[in-house]
Input
Amino acid sequence: MDLTSLIGFLATWILVLASMASGGNFGAYIDVPSIMITLGGAIGATVISNPGDRLKNVGGTFKSVFFSKAPDLIGMVQMIVSFAEKARREGLLSLEADVAEVDSDFMRKAIQLVVDGTDPELVRAILDTEIGVFEDRHSQNKSMFDTLAEFGPSFGMIGTLIGLIAMLGNLQDVSALGPGMAVALITTMYGSMLANMFAIPTSKKLAARSAEEVKAMELMVEGILAIQAGENPRIVEEKLKVYLPPKLREAFNQEGE
Output
């Protein structure tokens, strides 16, 4: 589990709700019709905006915010360098025996293309297309939460307008103006909370996860193409270390000592 996502999510909601309760009247922030307008309207508009196949994946997409793991870049570099050493000793065909042991489908595909003797330019084109399709798929999944973040405040404002209209229609009761205004504003609060405490953070985390995976895939492409070109394993290692952040690069160098 990604503890940073869980801690951030819990901290956000607990601190905001605790501050609301600190006033001694938490019930003042609860209004069922406002929840129905804001949450129901935003979710309904999001459903309309996205095809059914994409909506079916919303649970798994949200789950990945908490349960997906960052790619093991150090492990990938070590694996590719070991493949480079083996290919240099025994030839590219020797890598075919290692394909089944590789966890990454993308890596397996890349190795198989090289083993089959595919032209390097075609290998890069195929793998780049695979990365592009991967990015597009993740972008589409992320867009559901972008849409929810867009509609949340909008429906909050709609709820506020509905409340104001109802309040203005009853101006003869001066004592009801304060409570009426409070209820009217609650929907705006709900919309802001939905966007800023759920949809936007989720979207940004999905984008960060996607960027990490794309970097890992690009690392694989460079490594496999370097192996196909017959480059020295030491050169392959130096090329791939460029993809490692400074701390990971330092850790990698320490492991190699």
